[in-house]
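Now for one protein, fold included:
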Amino acid sequence: MKRLWLRICVGLALAMSAAVARADDFATKLAAFQAALETSRQEIGFPGATAGFVLPDGRSGMVAVGVSDKATGRPMTPQDRMMSGSTGKTYVSATALALARQGRLDLDAPITRYLGHPDWMTGLPNMDRITMRQLLGHTSGLRDHVNSPTFGLTLMKLAQSDPEKALTAQQCIGFLKGQTALFEPGHGYAYSDTGYLIAGLVIEAAAKQPFYDLARRLFWDPLGLTLTAPADQRRIPGLTQGYPVWPSGAPLPDTIAVAPGRLRWNPASEWTGGGVVTNAHDAARWAAALYGGKAMLGDYLPEMLRGVPIREGSPKTYGLGVSTAPTPYGTLYGHSGYYPGYRSDLAYFPDLKIAVAFQINTETGVREAAVLDAIRNRLVAALVGPPAKP
């Protein structure tokens, strides 16, 4: 009996020692992670940022640096939320893939199977031949309404005359009427928010449910992403101030929020082109679940990741709402996002089984992809050390 008791005591002591060492290791990683984000803030000069990570064993952390509002000096907190921009497309593609796996949506059928030929489709090229897979992979040949000067001017006038109102998806798509295709469907790559608005309409027609309801039921609620929600109204609790960069000479405001948690205009026009508010911790957990193969049942990753080069000869490819690229830490699966006044990025490293995400409350100094790459690599280095030499 004494020997048994001794073994139990020794076992408990070893377990406690291991737990303490594990906790110390996590605390060290968390501190290094925050220091890496702060170093980037000081080098680039952005007001504030948040970042989150998920480790291979499922432990996760979140940090914040700088301020959420320069006027008040309010410190940024890890729970603060920002507009996620195009990282919201990852929910659109995941929802479409989930419906396809349920047999409710054929990714390779013409989208007119689900949409028919509504009036808003008149004047758009190749609608009878474009598929859902092409919309989600930016290979439809459609142009992007966001690049239309008329679209920007219309949004600006709407924000000034009726800030509670937003353009519908059909109205946004209409800015492409009469424009030619960039290429034949499936024979090129061109990023198109318009394509993702059409994809949202296809999803709703196939599922007979609103997209946001589907995203919540399929992903947000099951994964406990409590700070992730539709960006479909001006009032967004917990939203930080954003500092945009407008074209030179444009008579536009230098902040996005007119009051804490209240945007100057209704952001709902973005819808399935982005249309999500979140925080960096939720974004990291989403990246870990989606690209770690745990966001839905079955082996869905091969179909999601199969993509095309974004340029001829480029090692970076785009699949179903996901970019794949080589990095010093191995292959990356992820997506970046832009919304006026905010920059977001989420990534998963399958070789490391680590997810990292960050959000910044300005565009200044962080518009270029290379800058995001540098911030991301610094954050990963804080968790796992410098990359192995080739």
Summary: The mean pLDDT is 94. The longest strand covers residues 60-69. The two ends are 56 Å apart (CA to CA). The CA atoms of residues 330 and 351 lie 6 Å apart.
